[in-house]
Amino acid sequence: MDTKTILTSATVTGLLLTALPTLASPEAIVIERQGSQVTEHLSKAAELSFTPIEGSIIPIAKNYTPFQLPEFYNSERRHWSDHLGQPVRVEHKSRDLSLEGTLEAVNDRYFTLSVKRVAGNYPISDFYLIPTLAASKSRTALNYQGLLTYQTSDILWQPELTMIIDEQDVTLVQQANIQNHSSQDVDLSSALLHYNQKQNVARPMLMKSTMASDMSLERSAPATEYSHSEITLELEQLALPAASQTLVDLGKTSSRISNRSNVSTVYSYPSSSKLPLSFQQQIRFDSPKDLIPGHYQTLWHKKPYYLKGNPVTLQDTREGAEVEVMLNRSLDLSGDITLITESHKQQSTTQTWELTLKNLSKQPQNYAITHRLEAPIRELSLRSLEQIDAQSVALQGTIAPNTTYQVRYTAELTHTK
Predict the structure, then answer these.
(1) Predicted confidence band of residue 217 (pLDDT cuts 50, 70, 90)
(2) Are 352 and 339 in contact (CB under 8 A)?
(3) Stretch among 6-15, 136-145, 344-353 having the lowest mean pLDDT
(4) The model's pTM
(5) How many domains would you assign to the chain?
(6) Domain extent for 79
(7) For the chain, counts of helices (H) and of strands (E)
(8) What's the confidence (pLDDT) of residue 212?
(9) Final residue of a domain: which of 88, 106, 137?
(10) What are φ and ψ of residue 83, in 5° steps?
(11) Where is the signal peptide (predicted)?
């Protein structure tokens, strides 16, 4: 059944769609990352647009006469039985295998497909069913007239977020992966992506069928809007083929990197004498616009190559917010912090530490080292040191290429015994 949809309003996390009247009259579809909530208007003995989740059908009418629910199965069989004796296409979920023929039989584990009068049995769990003709009987026909709402697992979406890093800039790529698990094509004249970052959803399994994309369309990227701690992005003109994934461009924006630094944190403990330093690359930039928060896959752009990096999580993504990102391990700096002397008094302990730092690269390198001592700090010897909390000091600066830097500092600690 062909369904054309247009935008209305969203009430829960998801992708909101509406539809022009056809055989059934969907009025709103809220497509979430784990499924959808469909609201539609039915005439007598009409067919639901999608396969409902058992127990989720709720009539909206104030009063209604009893009606019989459609037959449900507790296996994938329920998606196949409607098309017995009809021409269908099946596509393997993981291999490049597509067959067209007549669906002769189906049970909970296998289906029989006749291709050019030769019948074969196939595992039902390995294939997607794509009917080529409408079903002769309606699996979701209801003797009900009026408005109702139900849940379905047929349509869902996931954000696809990427951060591309080059020498001076960060480019943030936002995409939506919209999945249509149903056996019908869905054409959307407009849609609203609705995203709730508090929702914890696992990555979906990839579908084998056609990976469509509208990223080549020449149109402006949708604006990200924040409202009530949720995020919406308005889309236009989107086709979702049956049993497919559609990759939608939500925009690409760039920002200049304001700071690069090599960051390390070490902890003192009783009897510790030498603390090796391990550095991570950190960058800072301003968010160029309101963005989708979440997990971003990083790519290093070394023209003409793109190298995969570690994924990062962005939280401060409002326009103009300073974003701080820890990328991966730095191989440009090495060093350690060594305890030189330690003396004890009745109420305090005095420690002298020496920082040794080596720049192994051919460029100046910024560094930011946090040293957390084993007790609260009473006094520091160097004014250049910044005490950032009761027990921690920060050592920051820039080291010249291919050089070794050493500095000593003394900390008087409150006696812990």
Answers:
(1) very low
(2) yes
(3) 6-15
(4) 0.67
(5) 2
(6) 71-137
(7) 0, 33
(8) 37
(9) 137
(10) -110, 20
(11) 1-24
